[in-house]
Amino acid sequence: MEGQDLHPSEAPDEDDGISGVVPTASVANSGPEVDSNDNDSAIDMFSRPSSTQSVRASIYDFVEEHGRTYHNFHSGKYLIPNDALEKDRLELQNHIWKLTLDGKLHFTPFSTPPQRVLDVGCGTGTWAIEFALQYPSAHVTGTDLSPIQPNYVPANCVFEIDDAEEEWLFTEPFDYIHGRTLMNCFKDISTVFASVFKALAPGGHFEMQDGCMPFRSADGTLDNTTLLDWCHKTLEGSARVGRRWVDPRNYKVIMEAVGFVDVVETRLKWPLNTWPRDKKLKELGMWVREDMMEILSAVKKVFIAGLGWSVDDADAFVERAKADLMNRNIHGWIDIVVVYGRKPEAL
Ligand SMILES: C[S@@+](CC[C@H](N)C(=O)[O-])C[C@H]1O[C@@H](n2cnc3c(N)ncnc32)[C@H](O)[C@@H]1O
User: Fold this and answer.
1) Beta carbon of 285 within 6 Å of any ligand 1 atom
2) Which of 77, 104, 143, 284 has the smallest count of CB within 10 Å of its CB?
3) Does ligand 1 have an atom closer than 6 angstroms to the CB of 165?
4) Can you give the pTM of this predicted structure?
5) 240 has a pLDDT exceeding 70
């Protein structure tokens, strides 16, 4: 203990008081005395996290596969990563959507601004944040499987980790529910649309904005390309793992079937690169090409898990599809659907 400045009370006790004493069986087996006073708040100042807190903590333990991370809450449902690359892609796609819709966040015509708003599968939450800023009197909730939303958001915007395929437990009805690029998220989109219908107040609106697969071309230049094959293989692999992509061109019919009225559909196009002459479409094509460069490899898990391909085979396939994407002689596009409808006032 030389050189150490120990306070007398911290110094080891040289005389343990039991030296030379042969313990009796009862002394050897006795443990520390029990404190019958359970209310010593000075010592028991830490509380164990509640079960919901530990669930919250575990949702940040993302699943890692082939150099990407995936959501852990209800793990395995959504086959696209949730890492920094994907978050950047979603930001780029948000820009593409705004360019496509001429800066609008919605096509639904509101007679009065909606007060309770839900964004299902909100991703990085950018749409929800922008909607909250545009409508300061609204309270906007964004839900997603992945906790990838920012911490600093407008006071009228909150995010919750929630699975839209489970029973919806919101206690107050919404005036407007929105969903964007969710075509590959749900096993049964009708069930999710029915949950939306139920969660809306009478007269409330629902709007979906989405892209369709497979890609198309008018002049046959997409035929027999790896890019088109990528669409078919993605659809096939996803279906095999039980996550079939929906065709958003069917949204209108599905919305009407669950009870929505005055359903209005608009169809638009995202060129796959800069091939169109039209200035706006050319600019869109430039951004869509960058978005697609990333998504082409982001779905790799579908080829590996769904089609049984090796990582190397999947990588080589994606590289060939990327080369097609860069080829301006291939005049492909993605069909875009924006559809909104209203829950009737009187049911
Ligand atoms: C392509 S991203 C779109 C994100 C956002 N809507 C946007 O447009 O930027 C799809 C999102 O849906 C989420 N998602 C997938 N399945 C879901 C589910 N069952 N419940 C809630 N969110 C889900 C994913 O985690 C992902 O963030």
Assistant:
1) no
2) 104
3) yes
4) 0.84
5) yes
